[in-house]
């Protein structure tokens, strides 16, 4: 879960940083980078939601991995 949180935060930071460079991205026809970081962030949030949901529905007698 720590890796997912870290990756999601890096994606969010990348998106926010690229917001300051929108004119340069448009000139270079590289807006795909902005939307890629946003998509990565949203997929990360979605994935963490699934991980939390799976953890809540885990059987109580099962041994948890370390």
Map the helices and strands.
Elements: H1 2-19, H2 22-27, H3 32-56
Helix pairs in contact: 1-3
- Radius of gyration, taken over Cα atoms and rounded to an integer in Å: 17 Å
Number of strands: 0
- pLDDT average, as an integer? 91
Q: How many helices does DSSP assign? A: 3
Structural class by SSE content:
mainly alpha
Overall shape: it is rod-shaped
Helix content: over 70%
Tell me the distance between the termini: 12 Å
Largest sheet: none
How large is the share of residues in beta strands?
Answer: under 5%
Low-confidence stretches: none
Helix/strand order: HHH
When the domains are counted, the total is 1
Give an overview of the whole structure.
The protein is mostly helical. It has one domain (2-56). 74% of the residues lie in helices and 0% in strands. The protein contains 3 helices and no strands. α1 runs antiparallel to α3 (32-56). The longest helix is centred in the middle third of the chain and has 25 residues, at 32-56. The chain is rod-shaped, with a radius of gyration of 17 Å. 5% of the residues are buried.
